[in-house]
Amino acid sequence: MQVGSLLQQLDPSHLAAPHRSLPRAVRCWSEEPLTNQLQVPVLKSRDTEAKEKGGLLCDLVSEQDNHQLNSRSPVHVWGDFFDCMESERSQRMGNACIPLKRIAYFLCLLSALLLTEGKKPAKPKCPAVCTCTKDNALCENARAIPRTVPPDVISLLFTSNSFDVISDDAFIGLPHLEYLFIENNNIKSISRHTFRGLKSLIHLSLANNNLQTLPKDIFKGLDSLTNVDLRGNSFNCDCKLKWLVEWLGHTNATVEDIYCEGPPEYKKRKINSLSSKDFDCIITEFAKSQDLPYQSLSIDTFSYMNDEYVVIAQPFTGKCIFLEWDHVEKTFRNYDNITGTSTVVCKPIVIETQLYVIVAQLFGGSHIYKRDSFANKFIKIQDIEILKIRKPNDIETFKIENNWYFVVADSSKAGFTTIYKWNGNGFYSHQSLHAWYRDTDVEYLEIARPPQALRMPHLILSSSSQRPVIYQWNKATQLFINQTDIPNMEDVYAVKHFSVKGEVYICLTRFIGDSKVMKWGGSSFQDIQRMPSRGSMVFQPLQINNYQYAILGSDYSFTQVYNWDAEKARFVKFQELNVQAPRSFTHVSINKRNFLFASSFKGNTQIYKHVIVDLSA
User: Fold this and answer.
1) Which spans of this chain does the record mark as coiled coil (predicted)?
2) The predicted structure's pLDDT at residue 382
3) CATH topology for 126-279?
4) Residue ranges of the chain with pLDDT lower than 50?
5) What residues does each domain of the chain span?
6) Which residue in 338, 286, 282, 274 sits closest to 311, CA to CA?
7) Of 234, 26, 245, which is closest to residue 114 (Cα–Cα)?
8) Which of 295, 301, 329 is nearest to 594 (CA)?
């Protein structure tokens, strides 16, 4: 019990507090002489009083009557007073009991406290599996780290023991330990906080064990450490050991040379000579985040009034569904919708500060809507000529020389793929391309042709009836002219492009056969990689931060996600997604979060979160 809590019991409000018996060696003296003028209380024996009240009993002997009182007079401590209980001998002598001053109580109580708390616990004995001297301990054949090692040891050695795991705080209570040797055992695992509290440790040896890795920050807090021996272990030099390589680069401690036992590419390499650049420990994945309970075809994202939105075309309900990000619930929620018939594409385009949406429909014609900020709704402002656009399948928007355009790929037998231009009040027909060819997709991109160094606008039209056709922008006429096609690529459903280090690539989708990745070589596209297609209608490249992906959808199998390998300059298989009849994949970035929207013609629209994982953490 602490001094402060004992002194609190001196207050009268603590009269009912339980009492303690003082050691019998304590003698409490009062400077007040005993007198016969006060009423003598009822006397009880010392043992009886102690049993009844459980109080503190101490001895009181008066200097004045010391020659008369040779036996002890019990005193019971209670609140601010001493109840003096005379023995039978004292009663016969006529001595009276008087109240004692508070100072006597203080002196008695504090004397007992000092004697009680002054006792030190006995030092731990040497464990049975150890041999101990004043400063050293040697432990052999132990099944676990003993907890009763003498606290004053400076050197501690474990050898030929049977335990293979060392847990947290295994050496707690050894503040003076300077040398710790855990050698020639079969240690397989050590916890991160095994050596916590060993601030005086100078030398640590884990030599000749069976360690394959060490937990990060295991040496944290060992401020006095000057020598570490890790030889004779089977270290696997993977991402879990990357931290050790970094620690070796900046520690002031001397560390003996250690070597990798795995993986094969690092076998027998000196760990001390590795650098953090030798480890590729950052991986990514697409983790399921949210399901939207409806089918969809196209999905697009756009920025408007400093917010990010997503618009989804629903073919069976005929709606364009607009989603916004819920900053509280951390999910996407409905914002607004445009109702139509058999909607296949909802393409947003923001001109200056005004939002327009081009809604392509299989039946009932296609239309252009404007967002009315005052009425807070979408208003139809224009119809798209039905004689040219009979069966729209794709829409692409682009800007050339400060002029806005959009192009609609028409897949009907009698339709025209048509370019529309913004004139300040609406969109009007600017140019018709590729009549009667049943175009399924259109892609806008910029590529350079020698001897020109600048990239020029181009369009690539995919068709079910011929090879993809490349159109180039003519600056003089302000029109696209037919340049060439992509050879040996019949039955291409769609073409999408991406760039890596300034080089332009395209992904070509085939429903059955091989989809391809091709690279622009200055005058034509060159074949660099093929992926098997099993009912594929989308092969979408997309970039998230510094990661370049290509996602090949499939109606008959899992969707394959590929990741670009910069060293190989090609895609490598990365992940599989289970999406029913996917038709588009769209990257959406909101609040430093990256999402992948996967449309589905037969199932729910799915949202995946792009997750970055550090394997060395």
Assistant:
1) none
2) 96
3) 3.80.10
4) 1-100
5) 126-279, 307-538
6) 338
7) 26
8) 301
pTM surpassing 0.85? no
Same fold flag, 126-279 and 307-538: no
Q: Token pair of 576, please?
A: 């599989």
* pLDDT digit string, tens, across residues 503-518: 999 999 999 999 999 9
Number of H helices, E strands in the chain: 5, 42
| Amino acid (one-letter) located at 458 | H
H or E stretch at 548: strand 547-552
C-alpha span between 30 and 108 (Å, rounded): 10
Cα 127 to chain centroid distance, Å, stands at 43
Listed in order, strand segments (DSSP E) in 329-402 are 331-339, 343-351, 354-361, 366-372, 377-384, 392-400
User: Which residues have C-beta within 8 Å of that of residue 39, sequence separation ≥ 6?
Assistant: 96
For position 385, what pLDDT does the model report?
87
| 3-class DSSP assignment, residue 92 | helix
CATH fold label, 307-538:
Neuraminidase (2.120.10)
Q: Which DSSP category does 110 fall into?
A: H
The amino acid at 194: T
526 phi and psi angles, rounded to 5 deg? -115, 140
Q: What residue type is 416 in one-letter code?
A: F
Any idea which residue has 């392509």 for tokens?
360
Residues in the chain: 617
The β-bridge relationship of strands 73-78 and 56-60 is: antiparallel
CA quadruple 152, 154, 157, 162: dihedral, nearest 10: 30
Please tell me the predicted confidence (pLDDT) of residue 464.
Answer: 78
Q: What is residue 67's predicted lDDT score, i.e. its pLDDT?
A: 41
pLDDT value at position 81?
36
